[in-house]
Amino acid sequence: MKIIFMTIFLVSCLMLSAIEYKIDLLWDEFEGECNGFISGTIGSEFGFVNGAGSQEALEGKLISIGEGRTMEAKQSFIINSEDGYFTFWIKDKFTDDDLAQDPTLIARSKPVIKIYKGRNLVRQIKVPSQEGLTCKVFDLDVSTDEINEELKFYPKSRLIVGKVVNAVDGEALSDVNISITDYMRESRIFTTDEKGIFLFDVEIGEYTLGFSKEGFIGTTINTRMGADETPREVICAMSPEIKEFRIILTWGSIPKDLDAHLSGPNPEGGNFHIWYRNKILIAGKNFLDRDDTKRYGPETITIYKPAIGEYYYSVYDYTNRTKKKSKSLSRSNAVVQIYGMNRLLASFEVPEDIKGNCWHVFKINEIHEIIPINNIDVVLDERSIQ
User: Fold this and answer.
1) In angstroms, what CA-CA distances link 6 with 12, 18, 287?
2) From CA 52, how far away is CA 39, in angstroms rounded?
3) Rounded Cα gap, residues 120 and 192, in angstroms
4) What is the rounded CA–CA span in Å between residue 304 and residue 53?
5) Strand partners, 359
6) Over the stretch 262-300, which tens digit does the pLDDT of each residue have?
7) Cα 155 from chain centroid?
């Protein structure tokens, strides 16, 4: 009997030592029916599990233990990996069904999430009292042990939701016409409200969003509703009509602060390097129209008086400026769009799953051609960015 007991004990210890993270979701089952949900990527592989049943994904590195194994309302998850990026959600179990009509169900059930690293409790999150049937709780970067708490409620789960702003001043744009077209080429039309907000119910698939408003340059954004059926956020920064080069950076909820850098020839002689700490006037104009430090952007630079010579544009992850191994920049969903002559000239999406804090996006050569660079590396001193 002692031998059997010791064997069971040793196996249990080995299992616990192999577990990188364990996540518990607890709630008041007399007030609501919560369902935890984790989606994540390891390298180029994507997977997800929900807490209602026993499930595995990502070759067994992401596990849902399932319900019904305790006397309390509880779901447990295991992430057994040394790398990867994961997002934890809470959904009402009937969030996308007609049965779910009460937007207070999640908040009333008072969910609590406990995050363990090995045997240690590293974070406890209490979900606040807000309305919505889907709630994003946190992101976890396993490689750096960073937990980005971001409690955000949505009315449903299968949604594309976003905001349209003026790229120059960041103010919300109302009455923007938005068309959403699916892979069957069927379209719907929507108009932003006074806060610049728009929202579409969608099914799984690819979508193209088209944006138009008088006095602004029209643009399009491609997005998709994945098999994980979690809300997709879109930020659209529309440029007022302009003939000169205007460069617009937008990104997602992480990292908090990305900075746009532009270097090039000064019409009055010499060279310049513009970023938030070096807002110099060139030919009497401040090329940096807008600096954003609170997620999403936009950060906007306008070359009001092009000179002869080469311009270089880069994006620096100021939030993770000291972290050589961070992949936050490559996971930021950052997009850079270049406008000129009242049209979109080029667009770049940040390369995925690469360590580094500086994205060298493109250059403009002496005959004003846009030349892609599109690589990420590590820069420890932002003053050295070309």
Assistant:
1) 10, 18, 70
2) 14
3) 46
4) 58
5) 315, 376
6) 999 987 788 889 888 887 777 667 777 777 767 888 999
7) 19
Rounded CA separation 109/301 (Å): 46
Of residues 159 and 10, the one with the higher pLDDT is 159
**How many angstroms separate the CA atoms of 244 and 312, rounded?**
16
Max distance between CA atoms of the chain, in angstroms, equals: 88
- pTM for the model stands at 0.85
- How far is residue 367 CA from its own chain's centroid? 35
* Contact of 231 with 200, CB cutoff 8 Å: no
Distance between CA atoms of residues 232 and 205, nearest Å: 12
CB hemisphere CA count around 364 (13 angstroms):
23
Q: Which two tokens stand for residue 218?
A: 């029209």
Domain ranges within the chain, ordered by starting residue: 2-154, 159-384
Quick count: other Cβ atoms within 10 Å of Cβ 70?
12
8-state DSSP, 16: H
The alpha carbon torsion through 28, 29, 31, 37 (nearest 10 deg) reads: 90
State pLDDT tens for residues 179-208.
999 988 889 999 999 999 999 999 999 999
Task: Give the pLDDT mean for 220-241.
Answer: 93
Residue 154 · residue 135 · CB < 8 Å: yes
Closest to 236 measured CA to CA, from 302, 173, 156: 173
Q: CB count, 10 Å around CB of 273?
A: 17
The answer to whether 89 touches 134, Cβ cutoff 8 Å, is: yes
Dihedral of the alpha carbons of 46, 235, 132, 153, in degrees to the nearest 10: 70
Cα within 13 Å of Cα(274), Cβ side:
25
pLDDT category, 376, cuts 50, 70, 90?
Answer: very high
* Lateral strand order in the sheet of 187-191: 187-191, 177-182, 205-212, 219-225
Class of domain 2-154: mainly beta
* Topology, domain 159-384: Immunoglobulin-like (2.60.40)
Which residues have a Cβ under 8 Å from the Cβ of 357 and sit 6 or more positions away? Answer: 316, 317, 320, 321, 323, 324, 326, 329, 378, 379
Predicted confidence at residue 325, as pLDDT, reads 84
Beta carbons within 8 Å of 2's beta carbon, 6+ residues apart: none
Nearest Cα to 19, choosing from 116, 94, 92? 116
Q: Does the CA dihedral 39-53-136-153 come out positive or negative? A: positive
